[in-house]
Request: fold
Amino acid sequence: MIKKGTVAVGLSGGVDSAMAALILLEEGYDVTGLTMLAWGGDSCRSENVRSGCFGPDSLHNVKIAANISNRLGIPHQVINLSTEFRALVLDYYCSTHKQGRTPNPCLVCNPLIKFGLLAKKAREQGLRFDYFATGHYARSEYGERNRRWQLKCALDTAKDQSYFLAYLDQEQLRKVMFPLGGFSKRDIRKKAIACGYADLAGQPESQDFLPMGDHGPLFRDGDFQPGDIVDVRGRLLGRHRGLVHYTIGQRRNLGVAGQAEPFFVIDIDLKDNRLVAGPQRYLYGIICKAVNINWVSIEPPERPFWTKAKIRYQHEPADCYVMPMDEHTAEVNFEKPQPSITPGQGIVFYDRDTVFGGGFIDKI
Reply:
């Protein structure tokens, strides 16, 4: 078989990245596995931080990735990015929470770490490759009409992960491959079983970043203090244990039971260290500002336009009118009220299956 080129595949230790590597091998590419080590061992105060791409269990994932590479018969290289991960992702995560906002670490990690420094450092260590691939469910293609690389949704809309890739740039898209973009998750599991990787196919869905109930160990003592929980009229309801433990739209673990209807976090009042809680109807809004927008598939628009936007990963794209304020900022007006438009979260704009761009939600 004539080799098509060389590809470095980001191997996480899960079935998706393993099958991405296998598919590329079957297509005739020369494949090397790359695994990033994000855990430095001293980045937080407790061993309660576990699993995901950050935590003590990530060391176990490195061993699994090495085993997968051995089974596939491909070289494997581990890139230590723990220092960079702490500076670029953990510090962003903690500082955003301390500002009373809800961070989206994957939107930051993907362009800077996974699609950025992982490939860059591998090349610095002597690895040569033409393309970089991952097990994300997304697609990319070159658009002849506007002469730009386009970020596209996966064909499996239920598994599509294009939302988390909205900050990739043109150079990254030019060199990226998404082997799973045309498959469903069911297809990939069936393929894994058929090819002798049933142990991977049976794994539960991986959790990104910090899949645990308490991220308190990431913060230093004194970063947060208890305070009052009040309703929308300012009536005292109870006490919170520190604003960093809450996000807008949260219902569980508020400690305000006994209300006539379920209460949710409506607002985070950083100035007075208060949590504002109330019925779900207070969560709905129709307007926000998008800041630090990366227009990935199109040039920065100069005129207002209608499109669809997701305000979190599991959100159904909603019709909205986007009014550019400058190249990287826009006012967004939704046609219908949307629940929990949360400052700090990602907002990603779609035109059918194409990702126009993405930014972060801010208040008007």
The CA atoms of residues 15 and 197 lie 8 Å apart. Helices lie at 15-26, 58-72, 82-98, 105-124, 170-174, 185-194, 198-201.
